[in-house]
Request: fold
Amino acid sequence: MKRLERLRSALREKGLDGLIVTNPTHVLYLTGFSGGEGLAIVGQNVAQLLVDFRYVEQAERESPGWERIKVPQRLRDTLAETLQKDGFQRVGVEASHLTVEQWQSWRDFFPNLVWEATTGLVEDLRLVKEEAEISAIRQAAELTDRAFEHILGFLRPGVTEREVALELEFFLRKEGASGVSFPLIVAAGPNGSMPHHQPGTRPLAPGDLVVIDMGCVVDHYCSDFTRTVALKPVSSQAREIYEVTLQAQQVGLAAIRAGVACRDADAAARQVINEAGFGEYFGHGLGHGVGLEIHERPRLGPTGEETLAANMVVTVEPGIYLPGVAGVRIEDLVRVTPDGIQDFTAATKDLIEL
Ligand code: ZN
Ligand code: ZN
Reply:
């Protein structure tokens, strides 16, 4: 219930009587309910979870400490009854999740309440991870490392990107992941220059660099991992962009510790790529937070405004993308510590040539 108390204190600071939590990730974070539908109402003396018939039993198991309220028909009617009992006057909603349609309909339906759009209340709580969260992320990262070992025996000319992605997903799920943390990326040869390429029917071919970006979910927590491997023969250009990316990643990893501004970590790595003349081919940020979601705060990019703190979990993933030619990305998942990092990704970064 520590999370709930932290949220209550944030509500007091904002002068809100309560918050209606609609984002399913936030409902999960606060209540433990993982059904993906339903909402939570939090006030100083209120901890309510509203679910419909389909989820009553699941909510009972997952959220024992919460007052569970069954929604028989229309959510709005149950919400009206509940809010009346709660006696709230100023109520917050999650601006990043509630639709404009719901927002308008609730305001019309509850004219006596003062509604306030809030931003980041639960996200703020999620920035720094607890030990149990870190342990789940670490398990997901270990499984991802094993999937990479496994796939090395599968990569050869003629196998398609999609076959590689499917084999990875099958391995991850068979070995205990509840799912993948995003649609896996396998980008071979010229497809590698698209950072979020969707695996297609292109067969791997001699001379390809192959970008493999994958992650899985363990106990609701995500991992995120990228390695780029080569199919022989390796061109000197491919070797060069690989070496520059690796050097940038090492500088990025070395720049990370509690107290460092996210944008400074990004700048340190970016400088390596800029100085090598590939600056315009590194068009995304250095990394991002990982937790219940694959992309969450903090954002490590040129415009990132946050400062790293101990027990944030972030990726470090510079890349170089040469349109129509090839791409390289190398990504580790790390825990920020007071004097550096704990790296959860163990796979080698020596260029693997198959
Ligand atoms: Zn990734
Ligand atoms: Zn990532």
The chain has a mean pLDDT of 97. The radius of gyration is 23 Å. Residues 224, 288, 315, 317, 331 surround zinc ion (ligand 2) (CB under 6 Å). DSSP finds ten helices and 19 strands in the chain.
